Each structure stands twice: as C-alpha cells, then as structure tokens.
What we know:
This protein is 52% helix and 22% strand. It is of the alpha/beta class.
Amino acid sequence: MAKFLIVEARFYDSFNDMLISGARTAIETSGNEAEVLTVPGALEIPGAIALAAESGEYDGFVAIGVVIRGETYHFEIVAGESARAIMALTMDGIPIGNGILTVENESQALVRADPGQKDKGGEAAKAAIALLKLTERYSR
C-alpha cells in the first residue's frame, strides 16, 4: 500500500472539497492511503511537496487547487509558475498528479471539480498512481 499526500491550496472551499473527494476516492479504491495538507495558495503547493518528499513519508503526491482568472496578470503568474514548479519536481522523479484547475470562471471550475462530471481531482490522483508505478518500474 502506498501513501499519497494531497496538497491543497484552499481558497474555493466547495471546489476543493469536490477535488479532494475525487482524489481520495481514486487513491483509496486503488488500495492506497491518502492524507491532506493545506497550504495558503497554489504557488506554495510545489514547495510543500518538495519538503514532504524529502521526509520520505509519502510515495506520491496530488496537487489540488483552483485558480480563476481575474482582472490582473496575477492569474498567469500563479497558473504558469505552479505548473512549472510541479513539472520540475516531477522531472526530478517525484510522482505528482497535477489537479490545480486554471479556469476562466466558477462554472468551468464546477464542471471540472465535480466527481460526477470531469473529476479532475480523481484524474490527478490516477496520474500520481501511474507515475508511482513507473517510478517503481524504472528505479532499481
């Protein structure tokens, strides 16, 4: 049994609850264990994952959050830099599923977060599980 850490940037409670539900269901139905850690924002998710990975307590990670476009350039920075940092950690061999939604509005967030619709939290967890399997296969 593998242990996954779901790292969430809690800003939109209802969307995050749906994303976490989908991720937790995917992890637990695959016979694994999940724990949740909350950080202030999407930019803090990669740093938290890096610290937790160093601890050796977790086998894989799921990044959860919602970034909705606003009136300023901040959206592009948060969306781009959080994705870039997660990709860098993944390239370093840390199994991470990226479930940070970057959307134009709350309607798009709802469709993507809802486990009964697009279930992006569940998809991110399944990606983390798949990457963990690849890591186990190719790390000797």
